[in-house]
What we know:
The complex is a heterodimer of chains A (314) and B (215). Chain A contains five helices and 21 strands. Chain A folds into two domains: 3-165, no CATH class; 181-312, Cyclophilin (Beta Barrel). Chain A is globular. In chain A, helix 1 (35-44) packs parallel to helix 5 (294-313). Chain A has a seven-stranded antiparallel sheet with strand order 7-6-9-4-1-12-11, with no helix packed on it. Chain A has a seven-stranded mixed barrel with strand order 13-20-17-18-15-14-21. The longest helix of chain A is centred in the C-terminal third of the chain and has 20 residues, at 294-313. In chain A, strand 14 (206-208) and strand 15 form a beta hairpin. Chain A has helices at 35-44, 160-163, 195-201, 274-278, 294-313, and strands spanning 3-8, 11-15, 53-57, 61-65, 69-75, 78-82, 85-87, 91-95, 100-105, 111-116, 120-121, 150-153, 181-186, 206-208, 216-220, 235-236, 241-243, 251-253, 260-261, 265-269, 286-291. The two termini of chain A are 30 Å apart. Chain A is an alpha+beta fold. The relative contact order of chain A is 0.17. Chain B has 215 residues and is an alpha+beta fold. Chain B has helices at 23-39, 65-81, 104-111, 115-124; strands spanning 4-7, 12-16, 44-49, 53-58, 89-96, 127-132, 139-142, 157-160, 164-168, 171-174, 179-181, 184-188, 209-214. Chain B has a seven-stranded mixed sheet. In chain B, strands 1-2-4-3 form a four-stranded antiparallel sheet, with helices on one face. Chain B is elongated and about 55 Å long. The mean pLDDT of chain B is 94. The A-B interface holds A 20-28, 125-126, 135, 137, 185, 187-188, 232-238, 240-241, 258-260, 265, 267-271, 294-295, 297-298, 301-302, 305 and B 6-12, 14, 16, 19-21, 33, 45-55, 57, 60-61, 64-66, 131-138, 140, 194, 196-197, 201-202, 205-206.
Amino acid sequence: MSLAIIEVNGLATLQDAGRIGWRKFGVPVSGPMDWFAFRAANRLAGNDPGAAAVEIGLGGITLRALRDCVIAVAGSGYSLSIYIWDFPLWSSYYVRGGWTIRLDKLDAGMWAYLAVAGGVQTPPTLGSASTYLRGPFGGLDGRRLQAGDVLKAGAPPRPLTDLAARSLPTPAQPAYADNPTLDVILGPQDEYFTEESIAAFLSHEYTLSPASDRMGYRLEGPALTHRRKAELLSEGMAMGAIQVPAGGQPIIMMADCPTTGGYPKIGAVISADLPLLAQCVPGKSKIRFQRTTAGKAQKKYREMMKKLERIVEE
Amino acid sequence: MKPRILPLGDSAMLVQWGNEMDFKVNQRIHALAHLIEASSIPGVIETVPAYATLLVHYDPLIVSFAQVKDFLREKLAQGETAAARKPRQIDVPVRYGGEFGVDLESVARHCRLRVEEVIRLHTQRTYTVFMMGFTPGFPYMGELDKALVMPRLATPRTRVRAGTVAIAGAQTGIYPLDSPGGWHLIGWTPLTLFNPRADAPFLFAPGDEVKFVPV
């Protein structure tokens, strides 16, 4: 026993790196909305990068340590207090048994990750601890975390005092912004859209709709016109894919997205920029898109990961 | 037909053979998926076969876009000469009509057939699981006899019981979980299609052959 949940005002779930290997059977990956913050929280707590951790969004959460432990918190849009002190995110902390840990929601940003040294232990479903609320399976009985739940931590990989007080400096964190510009790779169905629509998509602002969730982020902006029909035979898709139904308003697939879909995809947001997208605020954030190539995208992703790993190891 | 290889973002690649439902094309997709799984190249994570496409998910920290593209070209070339894959055959007992096959009579009326004729046409063919999706474990199977082809419901039902056998367009399927559904419900099977806690969580896999047996 390690952490007791005292109060939840937002959407709190357990997530690991995702449910991989079952997509051909129609099982969504789930996993964190912001893979970078999730991974950073785990690395700062001394865990494997994909260990199960708490994802909190939309509101706050209060926990109590049931015994001494090390936690790390990373993400955007939250303030952290432990016992009677306020602390910055992107660091690990030694927490004494009995102390409370509070995450309060701020205006900007959306999701934060709380990792505990040793990782949250929960029986895996289809090889993963990630919660899929629509299943419902994974996490704690497939449901959101609530007051009264007790999270069990595994054995810490090193003495707690070695794991506390480690930080990821700001330059290594994603450049979160209220109104980010995101890199996209066009396709695979960009040819389904008129040239004017592709130009509009790459030059206008889109507002993140309040009707956005862990499954998809809906955008509101200039409608995109299909050259031909607005439907295709269902085919596989992935997080970051930008589907455009007949109405012309794009929907970006997020962590809980279905494995297949039948709307043309004008493009996909690159892995390195998914954290920036995830932390946009529904009803408020304005997003722009710019074109890149798969080669450049993969280079950016590798560099981002290298920076994170290098700092954590030092 | 020569397929195209297109990127979906920086961690998936789509192998695409046109945009038509075609049995022969779908067979080639399952064969390619099989070849890729058997060769387990580092960084290629999993594939999702669909009607006319195969989506290949990969980890760009391990393999690059260019490497995956070369790998797929090579597998496509091998696919032309590879021995035919032997699909699994699964019999599905079905109770037609009744409490859970509530649309059987309206299907018969719409198709101008007797109820027995609908059952006979539905059971006489061996279907292929073209793809899975919608909910975990839902098999999209086809092709249905032309006499049974009809559009899906104008208003989907909010709840269809797990195990319900249904048809829509040229396809037939089975709901693995209680879920909403817009297909015509013609029967029910006691088989469990999806149990996340079982050693084999799914009854079907893409590419399987399925025959319905009336009980």
